[in-house]
Amino acid sequence: MGKLQAGEVVQAKNAAATAALIASKVRRSKVSLDDVQRLSTGFLDDRRQSMKGVLGAQAYSMPEVDFVFFPILESCAATFIDQDRTTVMLSLGMVEALRLSVASAQLNSAIQRVEQDEALTTEWGTDRHHGAIEQLRTMTQYFNAAAVLHFKEPKQLPGAASLLDPATRHRVDVVLEAVMMFILLHELGHVDFHRSSRRPSEDAYLAWEFVVPEDVDQAKAEELYADRYALEAVPNAFALPLAHAATFFLHLYNYVDASSPERPSTHPLGVNRIAALFAAAKEKSSSEQVGRAAVTRAIEDGASLWARPDAPFSLGALRTYAEGLSKTDWRPAQGALLLLARRDQPGAANAVS
Q: Tens digit of pLDDT for each residue in 194-251?
């Protein structure tokens, strides 16, 4: 195997080779296997602590399943199934790519608020107001481009934390926890699929849930099963928030797939997984408003992406775009974010500066 693939399930015949590949990458990162073990324990403990109110104190526990967090640049979430050991793995590169995706969504929300803030136009002037909005849009596109490119050509990602104000960083962290919860539960869904004596076939999934036509084979059926397993693992009241969180991963991966010369063969299109997951979540929850606008927009954007007759972008163009923005002075956008944060503070004055 030359590359690690996000979301793949590695069967027994490939587990040893894949483990060797990961070990070689860890060695090149100068992090010892003992350090990896400590990182893994701490990472999982943090995830359990953050989501114990939703999943309980023993979240992500399954008999004879180990969890490993690898500090490598590759974006990878995978389940390694061997004869006598099963390991769920998540990489630092995946987490940081998703952080950019979540940050991009938060920036979109900030843009809407800045656009509607009439006081900004009055106090800043039209040119400064519009300039801040345009730079926020550019930062959003920069985050998205860097995240997609990272899946193809792993490299150091932009430091989203250093470009955002503390309030926005906090919102990103909260949403990212929910995204990681979906990914970890999804990976455990793969384990459950292989241990279950009642595996559903591809015929069990209805194509009408998809927004882009595609056939479902056994590999794709397993991915849909794992998505549904994650949904069934949370309380009904958290079904829609989980589907909303899953959208950040699946929508990003939809763009990753669209940048490839062929459609994916090992998993359904991200937009179809979002649609199926959202339909199932609405069956579990009576509150249809949670994340509805964001999920609906992701489905529409994803369907539009696959309706194009050619690839939406090339990796070369994406690389040039991201590199060109890497040295941008983002202070106008940062100033707008800080202003919004001050507005949100209790008792904050309405004046702007």
A: 888 777 666 666 666 789 988 888 888 889 999 999 999 999 989 999 999 999 999 9
Using DSSP's 3-state secondary structure scheme, residue 153 falls into coil
Residue 336, C-beta contacts closer than 8 angstroms, at least 6 positions apart: 110, 114, 120, 132, 133, 136
- Give the integer Cα–Cα distance in Å for 15 and 9: 9
DSSP string, 79-148: EEE-SS-EEEEEEHHHHHHHHHHHHHHHHHHHHHHHHH-HHHHHHH-HHHHHHHHHHHHHHHHHHHHHHH
The answer as to whether 205 is a domain residue is yes
| Domain C-terminal end among 47, 78, 93 | 93
On whether residue 350 sits in a domain, the answer given is: no
Tokens of 240: 């829609």
Tell if the pTM clears 0.85, that is, is over it: yes
**Of 111, 171, 161, 175, nearest in space to 336 by CA:** 111
**Together in a domain, 154 and 59:** no
Sheet of 86-91: strands edge to edge? 9-10, 77-81, 86-91, 65-70
28 and 139 within one domain = no
**Dist CA 210 CA 276 (whole Å):** 7
Indicate the number of domains in the chain.
2
For 274, the domain range is 94-343
